[in-house]
Specification:
163 residues; single chain; four-stranded antiparallel beta sheet
């Protein structure tokens, strides 16, 4: 239901570097860190992240005990460090999957198959195991209905929080 994105920015076609924040999702790196971490010399080794691609960040935080998985909803293509796992979904409703990764259901699989390794701030899991993560997927029509319902509910909650 997904494939790893391995396309590199070899021709430096894209210059906007993105990052994956547990709190803010996919965001421009400069906006998040208030400075550039990447530079034109190393962008050729970065992965191309298209709109609606998903990105796993192995960095552990209070908001993401096994690292966050977020969807690129910026409406544009950018690049990400090879430290991230970028993947594109096939025949799965993106809203449904995005909401799934906002839950902690998938954390059990990660904890059983990976570890924090030598660096306590990073979670380590092999790509070959990560792509085997079991996810219960209903028929596409049901995925779409669930995705629309929960996305609408999330927007409704956000509007009321702003009030």
């Amino acid at each position: 239901m997904s494939k790893k994105v391995t396309e590199k920015n070899s021709n430096n076609q894209y210059s906007e570097t993105l990052t994956n924040s547990a709190e803010f999702g996919i965001i421009n790196q400069r906006d998040f860190f208030d400075k550039d971490i990447s530079n034109s010399a190393n962008l050729a080794s970065y992965y191309i992240v298209k709109n609606d691609d998903f990105v796993y960040n192995p960095r552990i935080s209070n908001l993401a005990p096994v690292g966050p998985i977020k969807r690129n909803k910026l409406g544009r293509t950018g690049v990400m460090s090879p430290l991230y796992y970028v993947f594109r979904v096939i025949n799965v409703d993106q809203n449904f999957l995005e909401i799934f990764f906002e839950t902690s259901i998938w954390h059990k699989f990660m904890k059983e198959n990976g570890d924090s390794g030598a660096r306590a701030d990073r979670f380590a899991i092999k790509d070959s195991l990560f792509i085997e993560m079991p996810i219960g997927i209903p028929q596409i029509q049901e995925q779409q209905k669930i995705g629309v319902f929960l996305t609408t509910l999330d927007r409704y909650i956000t509007i009321h929080q702003h009030k």
